[in-house]
Design goal:
The complex is a heterodimer of chains A (296) and B (298). Helix content of chain A is 78%, strand content 0%. By secondary structure, chain A is mostly helical. Chain A is globular and about 70 Å long. With 298 residues, chain B is mainly α. In chain B, helix 11 packs antiparallel against helix 12. Classes of the chains: A mainly alpha (296), B mainly alpha (298). At the A-B interface, helix 2, helix 4, helix 5, helix 6 and helix 7 of A face helix 3, helix 5, helix 6, helix 7 and helix 9 of B.
């Protein structure tokens, strides 16, 4: 305790004169709490992930390349990323609409609907997959109406998009909603008083304010969807080359004790996730700056 | 100045609507409602309808079946181990991050979120690479007859990983907005560390903490991908509720699959209810502390 306390106290000696908030060393438990947090983080997250990196480096370059560029793997990336992109796009459009309706309009059961938007966060993915499959199969509640139109959803790539749309639904709504809530009504009133058409106000004033949040929500939904497994395996049919997502291919490799092959695919997916994580961080900073700019 | 007067006197001003015309409004509400119905409400209803399709007797028989009971027990046991551990971590991490300044703080905050960016399947894979039969420690564990993968410890580890950030993420922003003044006052008045925590900090964060725990519990009980990789799917032994749902579904035993799924759905609905309750509590408490304006408005 003492050494860090002294260092903090020493550093804050200057700051105390100007009443900045650096005299935090009065509070106990810094070393205990940080030490425990770091130990736990290392044991549960960092060391296991390090093991994955180590496993990947033990493979030769050609071995790694062969594992990640097999036709079956390529087909799975196309499906995983393509379906995740489509689902995130659907969520961007309809999520923004849902957020708008929830913030701006009053209608019966609004509070209940608002609360239920979070359902995909709380519902186990396996249950979501089971339920969606049951209503989108050819004799299901919705499937029976789509079947005569020649639309098959369950056990087709379309079914994967449906499952991923469900999984990503709250992300766009919950990132756009606060932005719409904080939007200054005076700007809209000013536009209206200056004779702007409602449609113009929406496109020229409100949409630009929504963009950063909308993109963040899209990226979050996309990132969540590419790694999704539980809901998809129920509805996808899981045919190699056709409806087999990358996470499922990892599971299949593991079941065959092909640890190296599974690791190589996992490295590709983690790489994509980290790039997305970085993009999301940048987007969130942009969006925070935009919001701060509004209130100033 | 004269311009403002001119605009105000224009009769057109009040004619320009600040919201959309009623038909457009109801059309938008209708489209949003239809989207939510197709993707949210119908699946939710489907779970309960199909669970009870063959009558209440079949429903309860499915829940009383020995393998189902073993799965429920395993899921409860896993959550009972995982939630307290992640709670402890969440409190420790939030205390260090919200109450102190130290180098690398933002890196630590990012690292806590890391499990959210990792596919659940990869969360299972990393433990198989460490403890699996052909993993780094596999031979050693085999020699000492310790089972981690395809056993309870593996299921607990994978679940710990996927629910790792949940409590911490609820607590960090909450404790950051509350600052350190109250704790400092307590410390100056001679309160000991734990006294400060239990008497000052805990009452301030209890609602957020409660929701973090409830959410962590729901996700721990509902985890599928990560657990599926490490469990080995041994009926009656290493099958959690979600894995049991999958097995029943693959055996075309739909009524039983939906019966177990309905329990998990009830848990999800309870979690959402708890969230609404906590938000309502915090909103009621907020005006008194920092936003007196809201009280006037409402």
């Amino acid at each position: 305790m003492t050494s860090s306390t002294h260092r903090l106290a020493g550093a804050s000696a200057v700051a105390i004169a100007a009443p900045a908030r650096r005299h935090r060393s009065v509070l106990p438990g810094f070393r205990l709490s940080l030490g425990f947090a770091l130990l736990y983080l290392s044991l549960i997250v960092l060391i296991p992930l390090g093991g994955l990196a180590l496993k990947a480096t033990q493979m030769s370059a050609s071995q790694f390349w062969a594992a990640v560029s097999s036709p079956r793997a390529i087909a799975s990336y196309k499906l995983s990323f393509g379906a995740a992109f489509m689902a995130a796009a659907i969520n961007a459009v309809f999520g923004a609409l849902v957020a708008w309706v929830l913030v701006r309009y009053r209608f019966p059961f609004r509070k209940l609907v608002d609360a239920l938007v979070d359902l995909p966060f709380a519902l186990p993915t396996a249950v979501a997959g089971l339920a969606l499959t049951s209503i989108y199969v050819s004799n299901g509640w919705i499937g029976r109406f789509l079947e005569p139109l020649g639309l098959q959803v369950a056990f087709k790539p379309l079914g994967i998009i449906v499952a991923l749309t469900f999984i990503g639904l709250p992300f766009v709504v919950r990132t756009v909603q606060p932005v719409l809530q904080d939007l200054d009504h005076e700007v809209e009133e000013a536009a209206a008083s200056l004779g702007a058409r409602r449609w113009h106000t929406l496109v020229k004033l409100i949409l630009p304010e929504m963009w950063p949040a909308l993109l963040t929500g899209f990226a979050l939904a996309f990132a969540r969807a590419i790694g999704e497994y539980g809901s998809v395996v129920f509805i996808a049919g899981n045919m190699p080359m056709k409806t087999e997502i990358t996470p499922l291919l990892i599971v299949i490799k593991l079941e065959q004790y092909d640890y190296a092959g599974a690791t190589a695919l996992a490295v590709v997916m983690l790489g994509a996730s980290f790039v997305l994580l970085l993009a999301i961080n940048l987007l969130q900073r942009w969006s925070a700056r935009r919001q701060a700019g509004c209130t100033d | 100045m004269s311009a403002t007067v001119a605009i105000q006197s224009k009769p057109k001003r009040s004619a320009e609507p600040l919201t959309e015309p009623a038909p457009v409004r109801w059309l938008l509400i209708g489209v949003a409602g239809l989207f939510l119905a197709l993707f949210l409400f119908l699946p939710l209803a489907a779970v309960f309808v199909q669970a009870l399709e063959h009558g209440v007797a079949t429903y309860f028989a499915a829940l009383r079946e020995p393998d189902a009971r073993a799965a429920i027990r395993l899921t409860l046991l896993t959550a009972a181990i995982v939630v307290p551990l992640n709670l402890l971590f969440g409190i420790a991490a939030a205390w260090a991050i919200a109450k102190f300044e130290f180098p690398g703080k933002s890196t630590l905050t990012t690292l806590i979120d890391l499990p959210f960016a990792v596919s659940p399947v990869i969360a299972g894979l990393i433990y198989v690479l460490l403890f699996g039969r052909r993993g780094y420690f596999g031979p050693w564990l085999d020699a000492h007859n310790i089972h981690i993968i395809f056993a309870l410890p593996g299921i607990v580890l994978a679940t710990l990983f996927v629910t790792f950030p949940l409590v911490a993420r609820e607590l960090i922003p909450l404790m950051q907005t509350q600052g350190t003044q109250e704790e400092e006052a307590a410390a100056v008045l001679g309160a000991r560390g734990w006294q400060t925590f239990f008497r000052v900090t805990l009452p301030n964060i209890k609602w957020g903490l409660l929701y973090g725990v409830i959410l962590c519990n729901a996700r721990a009980m509902g985890e599928f991908g990560a657990v599926s990789v490490v469990s080995g799917h041994i009926r009656g032994l290493t099958n959690t509720m979600t894995l049991h749902v999958e097995i029943l579904y693959n055996e075309y035993n739909f009524a039983a699959a939906f019966a177990i799924a309905s329990l998990l759905t009830l848990l999800a609905l309870l979690t959402l209810g708890a969230k609404s309750l906590v938000e309502w509590r915090t909103r009621r408490m907020a005006p008194a502390t920092d936003e007196p304006k809201d009280e006037l408005a409402s």
